[in-house]
Amino acid sequence: MNRTSLRRGLALAVGGVAAAGIVAAGQPALAAGGGGSSTTAGTSVPAPVASFGLSTASTKSKSGRNDVGGSTAHIDGVCNLYRTGDGDLCLWYFQKYRGSHADFYISDNNLNNNTFNSPGTGQGSRVGNNSESAWNYDQYLTARVYTGVNSTGTWGIISPSSGGNFTSTFINNVESFIWT
Question: In degrees, to the nearest 5, what angle opens at C-alpha 119 toward C-alphas 166 and 151?
């Protein structure tokens, strides 16, 4: 290599670092109220039930999934994954997807009004402030969980097709959620 090649290589490296710094500086920081993942990496996720009923058209958008006061007919005690890729948010009474669970196709602004409805320890207990693990079976939408009712308090996300045990901020401290 000659000196010209070395200078060009150095200029490219410095320019690349400077550009990366500018891009990073332009990225918004997480909101003070939350914004990071609300769960740890999940393993051994319970298989969803392939369903053909409720969701007939893909809802890659949150339209209709965030209806306040929506029907509770979607809370059937089964973690559904529809052929469209739509799915439920399931919350479990214990960590590692153990105990009873509650499933939600439509967001809920007050989980204190719901109970765990599948067989297992915790069945009949209030969902609000009693969930230790969660899985988002939807393949398109992110579930945003909140520590307060009506989407208030600290919030965290559960990305599509992911979940796990709730972090210390959210374990037994989730009271509402919306689809984003």
Answer: 35
